[in-house]
Design goal:
By secondary structure, the protein is mainly alpha-helical. It contains six helices and two strands; from the N terminus they run H-H-H-H-H-E-E-H. A two-stranded antiparallel sheet has the order 1-2. The chain is elongated.
Length: 150
Amino acid sequence: MVALWFQHVMLLKPCVLCIYERCALFGVMGAGLVGAIAPKTPLRYVAMVIWIYSAWRGLQLAYEHTMIQLHPSPFMTCDFMARFPDWLPLGKWLPQVFVASGDCAERQWSFLTLEMPQWLLGIFAAYLVVAIAVVIAQAFKPKKRDLFGR
């Protein structure tokens, strides 16, 4: 995954919001896997709900992270460490992926003048738009096409 490349090869330190955004991306990926496993069953609706929730939550997190970077303030900071539920201690299970060591307000990387959270804003917005289009498309039945015109 690209986030691990940034963290372990480019040696960028992920902050708490980066870790939460990473979890939202894993949610989108998990929804895609569920949808790919069962595309014609009602389980696909569960996948769409997970997809929309993960994309929406990721969009919120990326917006919050962007605001922290664009308008740094000593009164508006992120948590010291990521808080996961007791029944899902991701920071203990996979610390190299889910442990935060950076500051949310620090600008570490940019590409085409946009910082990482700003890119994630666009990415999560695109995921959300496509997810909504897929949900709307569920209302329409595909036309059956005969390959040989019979």
